Amino acid sequence: MNPTSNSASSGKDPAPTEDSQTQSAKDAYRKEVSVWVDSKTNEGAHVVPLLSSAVPGGSAAKKQANTEAFFDRPLAKNELGDFERLLADMFVSGNFSFRAVEDPRFIRFWKFMRPAVKPPSRFVLSTRIIPQRIKSVESNTVKALSSQLSVTVTLDGYKNAKHDKVLGIMATVKNSQGVENHFLSTEIISSQSSRAEDVMEKIEGSFTMLEQKFKACARTVTCDSDAAHVKARRLMKEKYPSKIFLPCSAHQINLIVKDVLTSVPKFSAICKKAVDIVSLLATRTKALAVLREEQMKYNGSTTAISKLCDTRWYSYNNMFRAIAKSQLPLQGMVARLADERSKTEGLAKLKVTIEDAAFWSGLKNVVQILDPVTVAQGITETDGCTLADVITQFAKIYHVFTALEDDDLAGVLGSTLEKRWQKFYDPSLFVLALILDPTSKMKPFRTSGRFNFGVVLRWAKGWYVRLFEADGMRVISSLMDYIENKGIFGDEVASNLSSVERYWKYVQYEHKELASLVLELWHVVVHAASLERAWSQLGFVHDDNRSNLKLDLATGMVAMRMKFQKEDIMAKREAQRVAALKESLKVDLQTNKKSSGTVVEMDEDGDIQIISSNNNDCSTVSDSEIQDDASASSQFNSVLEALLEFEECTDDEINDSVTDFYSLSDLFGVVSS
Q1: Is the CB of residue 498 less than 8 Å from the CB of residue 625?
Q2: What is the rounded distance in angstroms from the CA atom of residue 338 to the CA atom of residue 341?
Q3: Which one, of 473, 491, 446, lies nearest residue 649 by Cα?
Q4: Residue 634 pLDDT > 60, yes or no?
Q5: How many domains does the chain have?
Q6: How far apart, in whole angstroms, are the C-alpha atoms of residue 640 and residue 636?
Q7: How much is the average pLDDT of 573-586?
Q8: pLDDT tens digits, residue range 178-223?
Q9: Is 274 within the bounds of a domain?
Q10: Where does residue 265 rank: exposed (0-12), middle (13-18), buried (19+ CB within 10 A)?
């Protein structure tokens, strides 16, 4: 019997073949794609069709492009640049190995996503695409540094994965948008000497580069505090009196922790015992497991006992805090391990330490002393740290040290802090910066001893003459008005501007000289922490697995990563700012419905605009300009006496150099009420 005739006679359709099933699936897919394209077109999206010339045997007049080609087609010439830029950003930001682009699994993934686009080779990626992207990022450096007159140059060394000694020089500029850090140069100096003369040569080379390449001027140099850099700073102060030379304040605060632990014998003993606890836990797996169980029992969570970092002394305080928090769990661990057959001398020694009440009381005392130093460390290594912030943190540490109940301990710690202050800092620069902060003025200082307002007037004139090479007598009169809140310094707008930059830009038209001095000091970068962070990024990029990367390529990739981090931070801050403004506007608008006369709007800059319906007055107030209602009125009887004393001085007595040194005790020994 003919099967065909049977099926036909029975009235049933023939069974679908594999080709017909595939064709039906393709037709359904094309229909779905067509619906999607039509919907996107109706929404206003621009869907680029495949050129008919790309379809084999097709032409614009004879054949319409297949809808599948909207999703997979070769890149057009004008899209190639964006494709390579995004690819370079992805590989650098994710720190992917260049070999990944030729990995078979990566290629299979790529073909799944875009079969018509061919990925570049490893050679092309590393020798052309990423270097071109680095050049485009370096163009931002030119834009940021061009014609800048207050650039801070920072220097720091680093040992890379190949144990080469690398010197990095970074230029930093501070503006209303934040702080921007850019590499000036990096070079391997393993075979070079590190004398003061060599350091001076490198610094002067950075001055020349800024002047010739960027038409910019280096105002401040911040570097390490080893013997060569200390001597170089001293010599360059004499050679370049119009520039500021500073130690890295973040490093100095870090070394205060070292001073505390090494200058007090009982603290050194406690430190050694704490290190022994950490060392034993690092080598005893069972002891660590038991400790974690005890931590869950007593604390409800585990606490990692922090490891020490050789160059970060404040990591000792983190270790002390973790051990102090785990006192009961450690005692429980020792009790559980008391019957261990494999008990060794180390466990026995650990048991003695953990059961010693004097150890725990001493440990808590060390933590209490080091906590403000650790806080100061965090503040002084931020990008926004200023000269005023540095002296403020020194003052807080000084008050903690000198307020200790143990007079002998207070004397030792206060003396070590004074020595560091005297060795590395010029009080005139930092005191001026704090006094010229409108939220501080003379309030933090002791003005009943050697230090008085007459000294401040001499310092202000001296620094203005040094930095601007001009007469500084108008600075003195402006400073008097500033302290007494006369004229523009006492108006309502100025009193509500808490930002140092905004405040002095507001008053600069009437007090140009003093405002110029303040803004110059505000631009100073007091640390080399940005360069330290760049070295951390370099260690991530140029690790043991990629030790053959050339230095210029590795540092270029670091510059890209720093740029990406900056963009991410700015995007996050902007999102937070917009969310806060929306919430504020929501509350204001709800209040506005209940009360007549006030309308709240937002201008194009994102500032809140308050419009009164009773009149045509309109005022715009930025969030950063709003201060608490408490007025900062100043009453300084001692200042007035200093002014009277100053008026009797001759002009010759107001010299440009500071010969007398003022200790922390002179400045902060008694806090003014």
Answers
A1: yes
A2: 9
A3: 473
A4: no
A5: 2
A6: 6
A7: 84
A8: 889 999 999 999 998 889 999 999 999 999 999 999 999 999 999 9
A9: yes
A10: exposed
* Six token digits for residue 611: 């419009």
Rounded Cα gap, residues 174 and 188, in angstroms: 28
Question: 3-state class of 174 per DSSP?
Answer: strand
**Tokens linked to 532:** 């330290």
**Is residue 46 included in any domain, yes or no?**
yes
Q: What are phi and psi of 528, to 5 degrees?
A: -110, 25
**Residue 55 placed within a domain:** yes
Q: Is the dihedral of CA 571, 574, 580, 584 positive or negative?
A: negative
H or E stretch including 209?
A: helix 196-214
Burial of 443: CB neighbours in 10 Å, binned 0-12, 13-18, 19+: middle
Asked if 124 and 130 count as a contact pair (C-beta separation under 8 A), the reply is no
Candidates 391, 469, 492, 483; CA nearest to 436 is 483
Tokens of 189: 């100096």
Each as own residue / partner, the long-range contacts of residues 116-121 (CB below 8 Å, 24 or more positions apart, any chain) are 116/72, 116/73, 116/74, 117/74, 117/75, 117/83, 119/87, 120/84, 120/87
Could you give the CA distance from residue 668 to residue 671 in angstroms, rounded to a whole number?
A: 6
Listed in sequence order, the residues at least 6 apart from 67 whose beta carbon sits closer than 8 Å to its beta carbon are 30, 33, 34, 37
Q: What is the pLDDT of residues 65-122, one digit of tens each?
A: 555 555 677 888 888 999 999 999 999 999 999 999 999 999 999 888 888 888 999 9
Structure-token pair, residue 85: 């830029």
Asked if 55 contacts 65 with a C-beta cutoff of 8 angstroms, the reply is: yes
CA nearest neighbour of 415 among 529, 256, 279, 547: 256
The structure tokens 């490893």 sit at 122
Contact 523, 500 (CB under 8 A): no
Residues 6+ apart with CB under 8 A from 612: 597, 598, 599, 618
Q: Which two tokens stand for residue 645?
A: 């004393």
Q: What are residue 620's DSSP bridge partners?
A: 609
364 in any annotated domain = yes
Q: Look at residues 341, 366, 382 and tell me which one is the last residue of a structural domain.
A: 382
Torsion-angle region of 600 (φ positive above 0: left; ψ -120 to 50: alpha; else: beta): beta
pLDDT at 630 over 50: no
Considering 382, 403, 433, which residue would you say is the last residue of a domain?
382
Average pLDDT estimate for 480-502: 86
- Statement: residue 12 has pLDDT above 80: no
User: 537 and 236 in contact (C-beta within 8 Å)?
Assistant: no
What residue numbers bound the domain in which 60 lies?
Answer: 20-70
Give how far Cα 639 sits from Cα of 65, 115, 395, 552, Å: 85, 78, 21, 55
Composition of the chain by helix, strand, coil, percent to 5: 60, 10, 30
| Whether the Cβ atoms of residue 574 and residue 568 lie closer than 8 Å to each other | no
Residue-wise pLDDT for 656-672, tens only, equals 334 468 899 888 885 43
What residues pair up with 612 in beta bridges, in sequence order?
598
Q: CB–CB of 497/438 below 8 Å?
A: yes
User: Looking at residues 261-279, what average pLDDT do you find?
Assistant: 92
Tell me if 92 sits within 8 A of 561, measured CB to CB. yes
The one-letter code for the residue type at 382 is T
Between strands 151-159 and 165-175, the pairing is antiparallel
* Token pair in block for residue 49: 């069709």
Q: What is the DSSP letter of 514?
A: H
Q: Are 170 and 531 in contact (CB under 8 A)?
A: yes
Are 295 and 332 in contact, with CB atoms under 8 Å apart?
no
Closest CA to 155 of 177, 125, 187: 187
DSSP β-ladder status, 608-612 and 244-247: unpaired
